[in-house]
Amino acid sequence: MGKKVLVLNGSPRKNGNTAVLSSRLSDGASSVGADVESITLHNLDISPCDACDYCQENENGCIIEDDMQILYPKLRDSDVVVIASPVYFSGLTAQSKLCLDRWYAMEEGDDFELKGKKLALLMVYGDSDLYSSGGITVILALENICRYVGMDFAGIVHGTAMDIGDVEVNLLGWGLKYNFSQLIPGLPLDIAAQILFNNFEAIHPDTEIKTSNVAFNVHASKSFGALIVYGGLQYESTNMDYTYTFEQLGMPELDDRIDISVAGENNMRLTLGVAVKVAVLAFNVDYNIGSQNALVAGINFEF
Ligand SMILES: Cc1cc2nc3c(=O)[nH]c(=O)nc-3n(C[C@H](O)[C@H](O)[C@H](O)COP(=O)(O)O)c2cc1C
């Protein structure tokens, strides 16, 4: 089971820079085995902490019945929490701050339920650097919060981006499939081989995230009227490269460009499944046996 990563996006812009960067971070983390959940706080109903102190007096959590009651179990369950937020008026957005204030109710005895988890910050701002944008106050605030609740401050991805689209995203995927049945007439099964490539890049002057995935598979299928039974063997390999500037706060001459390459697990996967064709629809269910087993169901249009 991969690490559980909870991304809390505090931007109100659906396709804004925070959304683009955090979805790339999520894709990158998923591709190396993490179990990522991304939540847009703007879509939730989160009230401000009203300082009733019920949580402090009863240790029963927060008494306010709103969407934080959905987030509390997710926070407890996560290994890494990513606060993804633009800088607004030299601080976090109100959406992010409302959520963070309500962590107050996660105190249990002498500790917080968040103790030992990692916290990372993904932050964008319109101004040119951490000081003029006010982003520095966000970093200081989160470092303090980590000390207070016992979390590890795992890292910061930050950079300048003002308008939607300032963060460049490239996605290229292609595949090639060859059906061997046409070579060997009379073969009782349909046998095909396929190679697939996927490259993804999110490029920003300060930060680059690149992931690549290669998969090769051979699969066989046999039709019994509308029912198709199929199986296959697939090899997958995934890599993530991550480049950013590590800033020594207040000492820009010591800024360092960091390159991290993460090689995902190279996996063999065995798939066994059945599909039923009904007019232009094909319903399929398959079981995948690999480093993580999965049951997959789907509906395809076939012309
Ligand atoms: C209300 C408001 C306040 C802002 N305050 C700041 C600020 O203090 N410093 C800064 O550098 N950028 C500021 N910005 C710019 C945003 O941080 C920037 O546009 C960012 O890319 C928005 O991220 P998003 O696309 O994910 O929403 C502000 C933007 C808005 C709408």
Describe the model:
With 303 residues, the chain is of the alpha/beta class. It has two domains: 4-160, Flavodoxin domain (Rossmann fold, 3-Layer(aba) Sandwich), CATH 3.40.50.360; 169-301. The protein is 19% helix and 47% strand. The strands form three sheets. Strands 8, 9, 10, 11, 12, 13, 14 and 15 form an eight-stranded antiparallel beta sheet that branches. Strand 10 (207-224) and strand 11 (227-246) form a beta hairpin. The site of flavin mononucleotide (FMN) has 20 residues, from helix 1 and strand 6. Flavin mononucleotide is lined by residues 11, 13, 16-19, 86-90, 124-127, 133-134, 161-162, 164.
Mean of all residue-level pLDDT scores: 85
Tell me the count of domains: 2
- Return Rg in Å: 24 Å
Structural class: alpha/beta
Tell me briefly what this model is.
This protein is α/β, with parallel strands linked by helices and 303 residues long. Helix content is 19%, strand content 47%.
What brief labels describe this structure?
single chain, 303 residues, alpha/beta, Rossmann fold, 8-stranded antiparallel β-sheet, 5-stranded parallel β-sheet, 6 helices, globular, binds flavin mononucleotide
Sequence-ordered SSE layout with sheet pairings:
Elements: E1 4-9, H1 17-31, E2 35-40, H2 54-58, H3 68-77, E3 80-86, H4 94-101, E4 107-108, E5 111-112, E6 118-125, H5 130-133, H6 135-149, E7 152-160, E8 168-179, E9 190-203, E10 207-224, E11 227-246, E12 256-263, E13 267-278, E14 281-289, E15 294-301
Parallel strand pairs: 1-2, 1-3, 3-6, 6-7
Antiparallel strand pairs: 4-5, 8-9, 9-10, 10-11, 11-12, 11-13, 13-14, 14-15
This protein binds flavin mononucleotide.
